[in-house]
Design brief:
Elements lengths: L2 H5 L1 H6 L2 H9 L2 H22 L13 H28 L2 H33 L7 H21 L4 H15 L2 H11 L19 H33 L4 H12 L1
Helix pairs in contact: 3-10, 4-10, 5-6, 5-8, 5-10, 6-7, 6-10, 7-8, 7-9
Length: 254
């Protein structure tokens, strides 16, 4: 095997459903307790121990769910689009499986972001919903996720459905920078971003620390659930293969 082939060996391994299934099986025993620990500590800290906001009082605490869900809704769409692009360009079946697993997870997080935003908006703006740029573009994101999911199941051919969903996902990436910059480009009731890479946080440190902890917990949670969904899709798509049959037989024997 040449040096170049060894360099790309890991990439080809990622395209193997069996290798992905076996590899991620060793991760789950670590990811599950890490997720539960980060979320439990971060949410308890933020919801019960952090001080109330000077202007918003106790209602600001919804950000400990709203902000992480919003972050992962955007990041998750890039996961869907990137997996779709890899599947289209290199025709890797595992990439399409990841795309299919990531779409409902991203849709759920987008819905949580919209719902918690509405709950926060009532005491802050006096209404659950306004058609401002940020909220409207987030609603479009939810529709894009749902569109990808529908297209994946709309064709008799699974491969055609995957390709159609991947194309929509790639087209929809134009909405992500619009969501992120909407509060800067247009007049909007939505407050500017709390956390930015280019500037210092606007939150007090006692509120920022638990928020960062919950965000980390959401990222690990996303990875864990994505792996679980992908493993389930692998079993569905590879049910006729020998290794899945052997795995099922082994589980039945136990």
């Amino acid at each position: 095997m040449t040096k170049r082939n060894r360099k790309w060996r890991w990439f080809h391994r990622l395209g193997s459903p069996r290798w992905f299934y076996e590899m991620t099986g060793t991760w789950l025993p670590w990811l599950i307790p890490l997720t539960l620990s980060l979320l439990a500590i971060g949410l308890f800290w933020g919801l019960f121990l952090a001080p109330p906001d000077a202007r918003q009082g106790q209602s600001y605490r919804i950000i400990f769910v709203h902000v992480p869900a919003s972050f992962l809704a955007l990041v998750g769409y890039y996961v869907v689009a990137t997996a779709g692009a890899v599947g289209l360009v290199w025709r890797i079946k595992m990439a399409f499986i990841v795309m299919k697993a990531a779409a409902p997870l991203g849709a759920a997080l987008t819905f949580i972001a919209l719902f918690t935003g509405a709950v926060w908006g009532k005491p802050t703006w006096g209404t659950y919903w306004v058609w401002d740029a940020r909220i409207t573009s987030m609603l479009i994101l939810l529709f894009l996720y749902l569109g990808v999911m529908i297209l994946q199941r709309a064709f008799v051919s699974t491969e055609v459905g995957f390709k159609a969903g991947a194309i929509l996902a790639l087209v929809g990436t134009v909405n992500i920078p619009i969501i992120y910059k909407s509060v800067d480009w247009w007049y909007t009731l939505h407050q500017p971003a709390t956390l930015k890479l280019t500037s210092s946080p606007t939150m007090h440190i006692e509120m920022l620390q638990p928020l960062l902890l919950v965000i980390c917990g959401f990222y690990v949670f996303y990875l864990m659930v994505l792996i679980l969904f992908a493993r389930l899709e692998i079993l569905k798509h590879e049910k006729s293969s020998r290794w899945v049959s052997a795995l099922v037989a082994e589980d039945c024997a136990q």
